[in-house]
Write a structure and sequence with these properties.
Elements (H helix, E strand, L loop, with lengths): L1 E5 L4 H11 L5 E6 L2 E4 L3 H5 L7 E6 L5 H10 L6
Antiparallel strand pairs: 1-4, 2-3, 2-4
Length: 80
């Protein structure tokens, strides 16, 4: 599992983030305090406190590491 911290301030950023992560076959979760939601769920993301940084947890298998690196590059614009 890889973990990255991001910050999503506007609805347009949430929409762009979901569009990016939907292209990947592995599970991706967002964790904020004690809440965990599916990163591919736009409604789930809006249920989080977006005024705080959010942890992205990428559950990629060992043979998916190249795709995982590609995902991290794509979401780097939201990284803290």
């Amino acid at each position: 599992m890889k973990s990255v911290q991001i910050f999503l301030q506007m609805a347009s950023q949430v929409k762009k983030f979901v569009t990016i992560v939907q292209d990947y076959p592995f599970d991706i979760d967002l964790r904020s305090d004690r809440y965990v939601v599916d990163a591919k769920s736009i409604l789930g993301i809006f249920s989080l406190d977006l005024s705080k940084p959010i942890n992205v947890e990428i559950h990629a298998s060992s043979d998916q590491q190249n795709e995982c690196k590609k995902l991290i590059e794509q979401i780097s614009e939201f990284a803290i």
